[in-house]
């Protein structure tokens, strides 16, 4: 049985959406995939159980045919470009970033182009033209070069629109500057908004109540008819509390008529 005490505020919000004839879209982005692992098996099995599509942000420079062959057996998985090698180029006094302004723009865009081509070749049927910057940070000056590579969307962490509050500003490099670059012809901004991990504390799962509060906060700030709730996970570092939370979230949202899990390719097309 699901504990309804901490989940009830979110259930109540979904019930109100249902009564109003509205529905909220969710999408799941999981970062840092490179190869098949027991943790990836567990994530895919859990998502399959509740028909939740997964967007895997794969690190191009560290992956190859092993992951490609493994994922070919699974449906409802989209492959996004997670930088090039997930290498930090920032100085010790800065937040980590691979796609910052520390190197010539041409070099960074060339690496992203190589990553795009590599993953598209490895995963021809599941590749999506989505860039997920490592550490959710990208220099705004690089954004205008992404459509020329073939990218149709960018995904970092935080609200897509200017003026919206960011529950964890440290997650996003120059969040306001990135939002200011949109709307942009040929490129959508499709972010994640709720992170299950306590990166600055236990490095395990955050308190479940806090994650639920973040989901409700996102529902408050978003346009339900035009935007989605992006859930961010990292399968390689999940503890049991993360798996428990995801199981309960999927269980609840999979059956509630006011909720719908979407492929990121559908969100890009929209």
TrEMBL record:
**Which InterPro entries does this UniProt record tie to the protein?**
CE4_u4-like, Glyco_hydro/deAcase_b/a-brl
Return the Gene3D superfamilies for the record.
Answer: Glycoside hydrolase/deacetylase
Coiled-coil spans are none
Q: Which Gene Ontology BP annotations are present?
A: carbohydrate metabolic process
Protein name according to UniProt: Polysaccharide deacetylase
Q: Which organism is it from?
A: Sinorhizobium terangae
């Amino acid at each position: 049985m699901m504990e309804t005490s901490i989940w009830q505020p979110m259930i109540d919000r979904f019930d109100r959406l249902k009564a109003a004839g509205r529905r909220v879209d969710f999408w799941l982005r999981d970062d840092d995939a490179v190869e098949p692992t027991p943790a990836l098996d567990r994530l895919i099995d859990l998502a399959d159980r509740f028909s939740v599509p997964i967007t895997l942000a794969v690190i191009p420079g560290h992956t190859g045919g092993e992951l490609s062959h493994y994922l070919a057996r699974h449906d409802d998985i989209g492959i996004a470009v997670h930088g090039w090698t997930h290498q930090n180029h920032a100085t010790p006094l800065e937040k980590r970033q691979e796609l910052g302004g520390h190197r010539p723009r041409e070099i960074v865009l060339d690496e992203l182009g190589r990553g795009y081509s590599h993953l598209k070749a490895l995963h021809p049927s599941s590749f999506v033209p989505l860039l997920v910057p490592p550490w959710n940070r990208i220099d705004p000056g690089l954004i205008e070069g992404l459509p020329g590579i073939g990218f149709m969307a960018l995904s970092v962490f935080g609200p897509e629109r200017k003026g919206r509050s960011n529950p964890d500003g440290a997650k996003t490099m120059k969040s306001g500057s990135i939002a200011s670059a949109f709307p942009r012809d040929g490129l959508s901004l499709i972010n994640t908004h709720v992170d299950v991990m306590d990166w600055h504390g236990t490095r395990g799962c955050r308190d479940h109540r806090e994650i639920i509060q973040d989901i409700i906060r996102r529902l408050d700030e978003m346009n339900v008819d035009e935007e989605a709730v992006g859930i961010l996970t990292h399968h390689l570092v999940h503890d049991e509390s993360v798996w428990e939370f995801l199981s309960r979230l999927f269980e609840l949202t999979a059956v509630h008529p006011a909720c719908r899990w979407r492929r990121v390719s559908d969100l890009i097309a929209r």
